[in-house]
């Protein structure tokens, strides 16, 4: 993509804050601010980090005759019909081979937002493809309205709730994966208690026109610091969360990815989702390969693309995300290995610049999740 | 003792005292890398040719190679870095040096930049 990167509504604010802007998924985004990735990462784990995630795709999906959730379930394996108003789930769009077209958040809109409506948040890199897919497949049953006039923030960390409750009265009552409509400084915001760091926190959808002003209000709080994409990546990796296009893609099934929990019991029994043949077979017999955590020994980070060998030196897998975990204080990685080598504790070797580095299969997440119950 | 500092287009510096060159990365290089979390240094005794990959420096985001700006035999690596990678961020052009080598061909220094030329290079390319 050689096109000029697009700007989110917070572009000028990032530049003012000293953000180093890099192209990401067609947008100019801050990879870090002057504090640096290590401090930004630690700040999010200890206090509250503010992230601009306005590049992600937001949309309403409205049902025409029947329940919009039933329509959406033809594209994804979750129990969407069973979502109470305001409740949110992590889900995946599946292709006919049971591969993951994208991972996303789906909420049944809170009553204040409308009846028979879902609120979707999808990956920036996939939003055009996702929205086209959803519109095409659900033509006649549901209509999709892109919310390109809205920005999206994430406020993450143990102090996020204290900070946000000063501005959004009652937001502390939201449960994990619950959404609601709240006013911040008189501006109507859609807020969900969710995130991509393993910490308690919120995602806040705001009108683009008010984004800069609302962001400055949150950033003015003493607990809050701006966090770039660099720390967003190290935080999610420690939390064992998948990055689309790296840890999961159109060839990966949810079972291989360790995401069997996104396939609701009712859906397994009915087998009524795309790629059900492959997925139900993998559920019954086990997949040929599995996503695992990997702890390299020593200090050298092992990155995406590194081959994983067994003790005999045979290739048994590949690293799909890897780097340095600031909270772990050492190298961490995720990847896929042949299922026989997926048990926690299995010794492996990792190819790094032509040399084998010892490591072992590790449990995910590397850093315990601290979501509110 | 006379001492002279040279710079490369790869954002390394070379401080020459007598026949010994001390090599590190510039403040600009460390600012581009971000927080350093790992470094791999060449062993003493290794013969390096100019342009050869000599060290690896890794930030949270990415791995970068450090190339030998001039040819020579490595006399010493900066062991202080192994316990304190942050020296590369905090003092890149002093305590955060990478390695020293015995110059094989002082003529190679003629192809490097002085500070003024490097500053001009930064203005054009950074």
Structural overview:
- The complex is a heterodimer of chains A (373) and B (126).
- With 373 residues, chain A is of the alpha+beta class.
- Chain A has 2 domains: 1-286, Gyrase A, domain 2, CATH 3.30.1360; 288-373, Aminomethyltransferase beta-barrel domains (Elongation Factor Tu (Ef-tu), domain 3), CATH 2.40.30.110.
- Chain A is 21% helix and 33% strand.
- Chain A is built from 9 helices and 19 strands.
- Chain A has helices at 11-16, 37-46, 68-72, 127-137, 160-167, 208-219, 229-238, 265-270, 276-285, and strands at 20-24, 27-32, 48-52, 57-63, 88-94, 100-108, 117-122, 142-146, 150-156, 179-184, 187-192, 201-207, 224-226, 289-296, 307-309, 315-325, 330-338, 347-352, 355-362.
- Chain A has a 6-stranded mixed beta sheet. In chain A, strands 14-17-16-15-18-19 form a 6-stranded antiparallel beta barrel.
- In chain A, helix 2 crosses helix 7 (229-238).
- Chain B is of the alpha+beta class and 126 residues long.
- Chain B has one domain: Beta Barrel (OB fold (Dihydrolipoamide Acetyltransferase, E2P)).
- Helix content of chain B is 21%, strand content 37%.
- Chain B has a 6-stranded antiparallel beta sheet. In chain B, strands 4-6-7 form a 3-stranded antiparallel beta sheet.
- The radius of gyration of chain B is 14 Å and the shape is globular.
- The chains are: A alpha+beta (373), B alpha+beta (126).
- Chain A binds chain B through residues 31-32, 36-39, 41, 230-231, 233-234, 299-301, 303, 323-324, 326, 331, 353, and chain B through 34-35, 37-38, 40, 56, 58-63, 89.
CATH architecture classification name of the largest domain in chain A:
2-Layer Sandwich
State the strand order across the main sheet of chain A.
10-11-12-9-3-13
Indicate the structural class of chain A: alpha+beta
- Domains of chain A (count): 2
How would you sum up the global shape of chain B? globular
Beta percentage of chain B is: 35-45%
Largest sheet of chain A: 6 strands, mixed
- How would you state the average pLDDT of chain B, rounded? 94
CATH homologous superfamily name of chain B?
A: RNA polymerase II/Efflux pump adaptor protein, barrel-sandwich hybrid domain
Tell me the structural class of chain B.
alpha+beta
Order of helices and strands of chain A: HEEHEEHEEEHEEHEEEHEHHHEEEEEE
How would you sum up the major sheet of chain B? 6 strands, antiparallel
Termini distance of chain B?
A: 33 Å
CATH topology of chain B: the name is: OB fold (Dihydrolipoamide Acetyltransferase, E2P)
Q: What is the CATH topology of the largest domain in chain A?
A: Gyrase A, domain 2
For the record, the count of structural domains of chain B works out to 1
């Amino acid at each position: 993509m050689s096109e000029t990167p697009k700007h989110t509504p917070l572009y000028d604010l990032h530049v003012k804050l000293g953000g180093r802007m890099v192209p990401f998924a067609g947008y100019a985004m801050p990879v870090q601010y002057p504090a640096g990735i290590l401090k930004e990462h630690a700040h999010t784990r200890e206090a509250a980090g503010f992230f601009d995630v306005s590049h992600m795709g937001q949309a309403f999906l409205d049902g025409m005759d029947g329940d919009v959730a039933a329509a959406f379930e033809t594209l994804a394996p979750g129990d969407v019909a069973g979502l109470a108003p305001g409740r949110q789930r992590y889900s995946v769009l599946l292709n006919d081979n049971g591969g993951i077209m994208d991972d996303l958040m789906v909420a049944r809109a809170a009553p204040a937002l409308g009846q028979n409506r879902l609120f979707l948040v999808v990956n920036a890199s996939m939003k055009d493809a996702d929205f086209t897919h959803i519109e095409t497949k659900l033509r006649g049953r549901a209509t999709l309205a892109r919310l390109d006039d809205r920005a999206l923030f994430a406020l993450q960390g143990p102090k996020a709730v204290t900070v946000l409750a000063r501005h959004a009265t009652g937001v502390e009552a939201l449960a994990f994966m619950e959404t609601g409509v709240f006013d911040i400084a008189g501006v109507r915001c859609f807020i969900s208690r969710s995130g991509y760091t393993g910490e308690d926190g919120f995602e806040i959808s705001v009108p683009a026109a008010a984004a800069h002003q609302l962001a400055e209000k949150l950033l003015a709080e003493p607990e809050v610091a701006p966090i770039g994409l660099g720390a967003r990546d190290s935080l999610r990796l420690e939390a064992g969360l998948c990055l689309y296009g790296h840890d999961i893609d159109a060839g990966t099934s949810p079972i291989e990815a360790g995401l069997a929990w996104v396939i609701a019991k009712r859906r397994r029994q009915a087998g009524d989702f795309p790629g059900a043949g492959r997925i139900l077979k993998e559920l019954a017999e086990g997949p040929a390969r599995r996503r695992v955590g990997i702890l390299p020994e020593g200090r050298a980070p092992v990155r995406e693309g590194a081959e994983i060998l067994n003790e005999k030196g045979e290739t048994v897998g590949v690293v799909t995300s890897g780097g340095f975990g600031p909270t772990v204080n050492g190298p961490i990685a995720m990847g896929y290995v042949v299922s026989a080598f997926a048990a926690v504790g299995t010794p492996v070797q990792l190819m790094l610049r032509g040399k084998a580095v010892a490591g072992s299969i590790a449990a995910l997440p590397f850093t315990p999740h601290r979501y509110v119950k | 003792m006379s001492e002279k500092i040279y710079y490369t287009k790869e954002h390394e510096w070379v401080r020459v005292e007598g026949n010994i060159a001390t090599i590190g990365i510039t403040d600009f290089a460390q600012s581009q890398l971000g927080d350093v979390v790992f470094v791999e240094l060449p062993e003493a005794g290794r013969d390096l040719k100019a342009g050869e990959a000599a060290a690896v420096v890794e930030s949270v985001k990415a791995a970068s190679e450090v190339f030998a700006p001039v040819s020579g035999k490595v006399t010493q690596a900066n062991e202080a870095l192994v316990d304190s990678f942050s020296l590369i961020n905090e003092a890149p052009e002093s305590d955060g040096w990478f390695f020293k080598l015995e110059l094989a061909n002082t003529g190679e220094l003629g192809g490097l930049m002085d500070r003024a030329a490097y500053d001009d290079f930064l203005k054009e390319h950074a």
